[in-house]
Write a structure and sequence with these properties.
The structure is a single chain. The protein is globular and about 55 Å long. Strand 2, helix 2 and strand 3 form a beta-alpha-beta unit. It has twelve helices and 13 strands. The protein has a seven-stranded parallel sheet, with helices on both faces. The chain is an alpha/beta fold. Helix 1 crosses helix 8 and helix 3 packs parallel to helix 5.
């Protein structure tokens, strides 16, 4: 297939591209290489994607005319949409970035897919949509009407927008709610990177909610596998399905939403212990209260994903953290 991957220079995007290329697909990667974090890391990720079957376009999904031109010219079979303005805390201070990229940009992708008969759009949602939900593990049929950050609200908006296009235009769409992704080539603004960097440099680490947060850390290769398997199975319409009974994860149209998580939430202090073991260093912890926008707990129920794709994430935390620390030491030479 010919697959467009937006956000191809991003953390998850690079791994998804690599997975698609490994099985023989033609991949068109798109990214605007913005400065939310160091663009050099993004360019270095792209260097991991050589070959005649990969082509990169530096472009912003918010550019309506350019996106329309790209879809018209490329003859795409499938689209994996991963480009977004990420970061919960950043959304508290830069809200417009999230509406521009995550709402307007997503609309441009939806329009391109429906106007040029793309066979299936698979896109990144987030565990953040569960917001104030206190029932764990989180299930796709749970209500997601109480987001705790604008980032979460834009991801929920993506699911609603995708549902409209599935309903009105029979565009098959699959939303994937990622749970705390970590691994080699990870983002510098996320806890695994920040903790490893500070511990190796002998600096203290900020531990929010006094370390009492639970996170369903999910290794990036498991995420990439889940994305590709979901891409391969486009949902069909189900006129007999009762959306009231299935909740937000289902629809009578060709629309589905799935969790992708490791099903093994761990306390933040236990994750720090895994980093300490992998680095051979002891962390100096600065205990802080829960930050605005943060969720105390994330925990994924992935039964629906397993039933749909036959796949369940399962990389053990110690193994995944060890791989990340090995990559970090090699990349930065420490």
């Amino acid at each position: 297939m010919k697959v467009l991957v937006t956000g191809a220079a991003g953390f998850i995007g690079m791994h998804v591209c690599r997975r698609l290329l490994a099985r023989g697909d033609e991949v068109l990667g798109l990214d605007n290489l913005n400065a939310y974090y160091e663009p050099r890391l993004k360019r270095d990720r792209l260097r991991q994607l050589p070959g005649k079957r990969f082509r990169f376009v530096e472009q912003d999904i918010c550019d309506r005319a350019a996106m329309a031109q790209l879809f018209a010219a490329e003859g795409l079979d499938r689209v994996v949409h991963l480009a977004a303005q990420a970061g919960v805390r950043h959304s508290l201070t830069h809200p417009h970035d999230y509406v521009d990229s995550n709402v307007t940009g997503f609309l441009n992708v939806l329009e391109g897919c429906r106007r040029h008969e793309v066979g299936h759009l698979t896109y990144a949602s987030s565990s953040s949509v569960y917001g104030g939900n206190t029932r764990v593990p989180f299930r796709e049929r749970d209500g997601v009407d109480h987001p705790l950050s604008l980032y979460a609200a834009t991801k929920k908006a993506n699911e609603l927008m995708a549902h409209v296009y599935s309903h009105l235009y029979a565009l098959p769409t699959t939303g994937l709610r990622f749970f705390t992704v970590y691994g080699p080539w990870g983002r510098p603004d996320m806890a695994p990177f920040l903790f490893t960097q500070a511990i190796l440099e002998g600096r203290s680490i900020d531990v929010f909610n006094h370390g009492q947060m639970l996170r369903d850390f999910t290794y990036v290769d498991d995420i990439a596998e889940g994305v590709v398997r979901s891409l391969d199975r486009a949902p069909g319409a189900d006129p007999l399905l009762d959306p009231v009974q299935t909740g937000p994860g289902g629809s009578r149209g060709p629309f589905r939403v799935f969790n992708i998580g490791n099903q093994s939430p761990v306390q933040l202090t236990d994750f720090i212990s895994a980093v300490e073991q992998a680095t051979g260093r002891t962390a100096v912890k600065r205990l802080l209260p829960l930050q605005p926008g943060d969720m105390p707990v994330t925990s994924a129920d992935v039964q629906a994903l397993q039933a749909w794709t036959g796949f369940t994430p399962q990389t053990p935390l110690a193994e995944g953290v060890g791989r990340f620390v090995t990559w970090y030491r090699g990349y930065f030479g420490v």
